[in-house]
Write a structure and sequence with these properties.
Residues 88-296 form the Smf/DprA SLOG domain. Residues 300-327 are annotated as: Disordered. With 374 residues, this protein is α/β, with parallel strands linked by helices. The chain folds into 3 domains: 1-82, Orthogonal Bundle (DNA polymerase, domain 1), CATH 1.10.150; 116-301, Rossmann fold (3-Layer(aba) Sandwich), CATH 3.40.50.450; 321-372, Arc Repressor Mutant, subunit A. Helix content is 43%, strand content 14%. The protein has helices spanning 8-20, 27-37, 40-43, 48-55, 57-64, 68-80, 98-101, 134-149, 162-172, 194-203, 220-231, 246-255, 273-280, 289-296, 323-327, 335-342, 346-358, and strands at 86-90, 109-114, 123-128, 153-156, 177-180, 205-208, 234-239, 259-262, 284-285, 333-334, 362-365, 369-372. A 9-stranded mixed sheet has the order 1-2-6-5-4-3-7-8-9, sandwiched between helices. A 3-stranded antiparallel sheet has the order 10-12-11. Helix 1 crosses helix 6 (68-80) and helix 11 (220-231) packs across helix 12 (246-255).
Length: 374
């Protein structure tokens, strides 16, 4: 590839891509080379002997060798990055997420599609089982919706089950969500989430450390979990079996010194045992989005604050009583009873209950019951 006619940014990016796409150069080796020689253009200008002293003879030879397959991927990546919504972030870029830089092994490159401003928001990772229960998915969607409405970005992995529910909930709120995937960004996995991925790309951000063309390999998903944990101030496990990959994400969050939170469930459900194990180990038990906000000390950015709708005159209007609050008058009641009293379906009812809970006007009780607060 002829780099003489390239602009400065394109030359720099070409060097970063060549470095990271070389066989044998993982994040650790890349950091060693950067520490020894500086930016990738200087690394690739070193002699074989100098490189070998840092990364070994085989990797040094690979760095300096002509590699048609690598050059093809470099050219493809540069062309892909011409789209205004496509981004390639390097460790040297100002837009590289600061939260991730605090991790011991940040990816040298991040490929992204969507709104880079999403990376500037306070974030909570939400993870859980792919084989989630209906209640688990409802919890994920409701928590994500409430957090998103408060200006908090929800980070997850675009998998089926809890991940998808979390993304959907966030999109229904303020639309602030990040999906970290284990493939190249020209591939959507699982294919069933293609429409969801397109929505996230429009309103949030999809992120990957893997080069274009990288298919869904089992080894890639534990690697992407460290990015999920690294982008967020804390990780909330919604539902997980004892052998769930979500527990890996929780452990990685703990290793980073980030908070780990978990939603309790039925003692009879295998999908709750991972959460219960985390709670026994010291994870924060949370029952509402308010618990998450309080534990992580997260506040909505000023530009995300809610404002009252404009009125045609300056006369104050009396606040209409909430039908949900009216239905909660008296003793605690179940969701089914509330649905009968209000005529609302479960989804609409939970949206209103979550909002009222965040306002401190209702409380969620054990057994799925709700009660109005004075």
């Amino acid at each position: 590839m002829d780099i003489d006619g390239m602009g400065e940014r394109e030359r720099e990016l070409t060097a970063w891509l060549r470095l990271t796409l070389t066989r044998g150069v993982g994040p650790a080796t890349c950091r060693d080379l950067l520490a020894a020689f500086g930016l990738p253009e200087r690394i690739l200008a070193q002699s074989l002997g100098s490189l070998a002293r840092v990364c070994g003879q085989t990797t040094a030879q690979a760095l300096l060798a002509e590699d048609a397959e690598r050059e093809e991927t470099v050219a493809r990546s540069l062309a892909w990055a011409q789209d205004a919504s496509h981004h390639v972030l390097t460790l040297a870029d100002a837009d590289y997420p600061q939260q991730l830089l605090q991790a011991p092994d940040p990816p040298p490159l991040l490929f992204a599609i969507g709104q880079l401003a999403t990376l500037k928001r306070p974030a909570v990772a939400m993870v859980g089982s792919r084989n989630a229960t209906a209640q688990g998915q409802a919890n994920a969607e409701q928590f994500a919706h409430a957090l998103s409405q408060r200006g908090v970005c929800v980070v997850s992995g675009l998998a089926l089950g809890i991940d998808a529910a979390a993304h959907l909930g966030a999109l229904a709120g303020e639309g602030s969500t990040i999906a970290v995937v284990g493939t190249g960004l020209d591939i959507v996995y699982p294919a069933r989430n293609r429409d969801l991925a397109h929505r996230i790309a429009q309103h949030g951000l999809i992120v990957s450390e893997f080069a274009l063309g990288t298919r869904a390999l089992a080894a890639n998903f534990p690697r992407r979990n460290r990015i999920i944990a690294g982008l967020a101030q804390g990780t909330l496990v919604v539902e997980a079996a004892l052998q769930s990959g979500s527990l890996i994400t929780a452990r990685l969050a703990g290793d980073l010194g980030r908070e780990v939170l978990a939603i309790p469930g039925s003692i009879h459900s295998p999908q709750s045992r991972g959460c219960h194990a985390l709670i026994k180990q010291g994870a924060k038990l949370v029952e509402s989005a308010s618990d998450v906000l309080e534990e992580l000390r997260l506040e909505a950015p000023r530009d995300q604050a809610f404002t009252a709708p404009e009125r045609g005159d300056d006369k104050p209007e009396a606040e209409s009583p909430s039908p949900v609050l009216s239905a909660l008058a008296g003793d605690p009641v179940s969701l089914d009873t509330l649905a009968q009293r209000t005529g609302l379906d479960a989804s609409a009812l939970m949206t209103q209950l979550t909002a009222l809970e965040l306002e401190g006007r209702v409380a969620r009780l054990p057994g799925g019951r709700w009660q109005a607060l004075a």
